[in-house]
């Protein structure tokens, strides 16, 4: 497959490109060339800005995976340029698209956030993050129709990615885990490698529509116990840290966001490794001398 990746050199995007190259796909990267420019020296690169995607004006691809689509205007520009020159378009969206933050068991058909009246399409603020992802999904669906998939994910954990505040770092160094979320709080996450494989699968098979690409719901206590189980004599969990290391409101106002129904993604081929395997690999990555990046937002 001739694959175009928009972004591809940071966090999850690295895993997408690594998996694509390992699978024998012919990969082209389009990004600004500023983040980890030395990665993937054998891969073709197109350097440019999303706001002026002139570098995409020639060439054809079997599939596109969009890892860097935040601004509605920019996503619209790339969609317009690529509409007739790619087979399938897979967009990295977010679980932040849902209108309700408290309803458990939401499927992909649950109501989505509206676009605020008068909001700018060329400027990013955190309060527009969810509405922007909704608007981008809608724009891409209108452009590509059945050739478009929107992948909605939340916490993504794994090498090159943040974890739950400091857990991998703490477990790798024999320190106390810190968690500002309440112990019985529901949480869903996915290992970056599993998400990367799913993005590639959707693109290669031309599957369409939205997907909740998340793992099963568990409580923060259960998740902490699973991660701690892979390290002998693991430290305890500090549920009242002086600094909020894991940003989830304790009042239940966001609990539904982490109790999504992932049946459609599982049916489409999403495969999830265990909490213990994810933790073990992450801790090994820390012990190899790597430092987790800061959360993206």
From TrEMBL:
InterPro entries: NAD(P)-bd_dom_sf
Gene3D superfamilies, alphabetized: NAD(P)-binding Rossmann-like Domain
Superkingdom of this protein's organism: Bacteria
UniProt-recorded name of the protein: 2'-hydroxyisoflavone reductase
């Amino acid at each position: 497959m001739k694959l175009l990746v928009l972004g591809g050199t940071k966090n999850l995007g690295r895993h997408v490109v690594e998996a694509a190259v390992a699978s024998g796909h012919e990969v082209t990267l389009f990004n600004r060339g500023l983040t980890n420019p030395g990665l993937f020296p054998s891969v073709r690169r197109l350097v440019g800005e999303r706001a002026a995607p002139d570098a995409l004006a020639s060439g054809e691809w079997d599939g596109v995976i969009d890892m860097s689509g935040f601004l509605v205007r920019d996503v619209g520009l790339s969609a317009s340029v690529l509409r007739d020159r790619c087979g399938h378009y897979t967009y990295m969206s977010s679980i932040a698209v849902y209108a309700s933050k408290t309803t458990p068991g939401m499927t992909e058909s649950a109501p989505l956030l509206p676009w605020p009246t008068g909001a700018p399409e060329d400027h990013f603020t955190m309060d527009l993050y969810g509405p922007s992802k909704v608007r981008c999904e809608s724009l891409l669906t209108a452009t590509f129709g059945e050739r478009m998939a929107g992948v909605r994910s939340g916490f993504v954990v794994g090498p090159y990615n943040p974890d739950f505040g400091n857990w991998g770092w703490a477990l790798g160094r024999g320190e106390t885990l810190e968690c500002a979320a309440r112990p019985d709080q529901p949480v869903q996450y996915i290992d970056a490698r599993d998400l990367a494989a799913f993005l590639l699968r959707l693109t290669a098979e031309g599957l369409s529509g939205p997907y909740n690409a998340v793992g099963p719901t568990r409580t923060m206590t259960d998740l902490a116990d699973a991660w701690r189980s892979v390290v002998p004599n693991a430290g305890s969990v500090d549920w009242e840290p002086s600094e909020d290391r894991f940003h989830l409101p304790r009042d239940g106002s966001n609990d539904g966001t982490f109790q999504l129904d992932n049946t459609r993604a599982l049916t489409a081929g999403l495969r999830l490794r265990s909490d213990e395997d994810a933790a073990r690999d992450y801790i090994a990555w820390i012990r190899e001398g790597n430092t987790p990046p800061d959360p993206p937002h």
